Each structure stands twice: as structure tokens, then as C-alpha cells.
Amino acid sequence: MLNRIHKDHKNIMQLLQVIDSNIVLLTLDKDVDYQLLKSITDYLKNYSDKYHHPMENLIYAYYLKYRVVTDQVANRLEDDHKQLTILTAELDDMINMILLDAIIPKEVFIEKMENFVSKQKQHLNYEETEVLPAIQSSLTEDDWAHLMLQWQHKEYVDPLFGESISDQFKALALHIKVS
After folding, report:
1. In whole angstroms, what is the distance from residue 48 CA to residue 55 CA?
2. Which of 13, 97, 139, 178 could form a disulfide with 102 if both were Cys (CB 3.0 to 4.6 A apart)?
3. H or E element: which one contains 85?
4. Nearest to 56 by CA among 16, 8, 100, 99
5. How many whole angstroms separate alpha carbon 143 and alpha carbon 146?
6. Could you give the maximum distance between any two Cα atoms of the chain, in Å?
């Protein structure tokens, strides 16, 4: 399960790099592929929010049952996931508006993307440097077996980075491989 989470984090970082490159394009008044950005928010809404974060939350809740941590630490991961879901929806809404030819000031859109990327990177760094190492060092093989039994989604297919790429994400997958 942790290997899956680490892999997902690397994949999400690739998506954040695509957003970063589009921020640069916008600041230089170059063309931006809004459909590509839409694919990223769709992926994050339909994959991260439905599979990745629930897996992390399951593992973390199990970990917290058997470890003494402060309330601030205990609540941070779930609070971060809720905030990231909101930020993803807000960015997605703005991209949808742009795709429908709404006029959004460039600076407002750049700020929204920069904030989104910054919060995502902070969250991934927190998980990779603090949360996951603590979990890995304290859970046993029996704990992991118990968690696997609790995981309701069992094996799920990543529609972008999996073996079979969904039609919805083919252009994004091609862009990532070219970059």
C-alpha cells in the first residue's frame, strides 16, 4: 500500500510540473492548453479524491488508533485532504469557466494555479517526510495485512499512469511522456 502511495505522489508531482510549465507560459503571454489543465483536475478529482486519499486516510486512521500523537498532528492529514479537494474543485471550476469563454483575469488564474501547486507540494512533502516514514517504521506485517482486508477498493486501475490509459487522459499521458 505504501509503495502505491509513493508511486502516486511521484505521478502527482509530474502533473504539478505540467501546471507549473503552464504558469510560465501564461506569464509570458504564450498559449496555454486549457484542455490539458482540465484533464489534470479531472484526474485529481476522479482518482486522487476517490482512491489515493481514502487509502492514505485508512492507513493513517489505523496508525492513529495505536499511536499517541497530538490532536494537531492527528487531524492535519485529513484536513489537508479536505482542503486539497476544495482547491482542486475551485481550480477545475475556473478552468471550466475559461473553456466556456468566460473572461478570467490572467493574474487571477495564475494566482489560483500557483496556490494550488504550492499547497499540493507542501502536502506531498509533509506526507513523504513525516507521515509515511512514521507509519512505515511502526506498522507490522500483521497491521498491513489487516489494512489490506479493510481496503474496500482492492486493486484499482490508475486511468492515467496505469497499464491501460483511459481515452479521457490519452492527450495528457502523451504530453507527460513528451515533456
Report:
1. 9
2. 97
3. helix 71-99
4. 8
5. 5
6. 55
Between CA 124 and CA 80 the distance in angstroms is: 10
b (16+ CB within 10 A) / e for 133-148: eebeeebeeeebeebe
Q: Which pTM does this prediction carry?
A: 0.91
Question: How far apart are the C-alpha atoms of 134 and 61, rounded to whole Å?
Answer: 13
Helical pair 141-150 and 53-65, crossing angle rounded to 10 deg? 130
Cell of 163: 497499464
Nearest CA-CA partner of 82 in 62, 58, 54: 54
Phi, psi of 29 (to 5 degrees): 60, 35
Is 160's pLDDT higher than 90? yes
Mean predicted confidence (pLDDT) in 68-83: 74
Q: Residue 179's pLDDT is what? A: 57
Q: What angle do CA 159, 81, 51 make, to 5 degrees?
A: 30
Mean pLDDT of 83-99: 96
Residues with Cβ < 8 Å from 98, sequence gap 6 or more? 34, 104, 109
CA dist 30 and 15 (Å) reads 19
Q: Grid coordinates standing for 166?
A: 483511459
Q: Which amino acid is at 23?
A: I
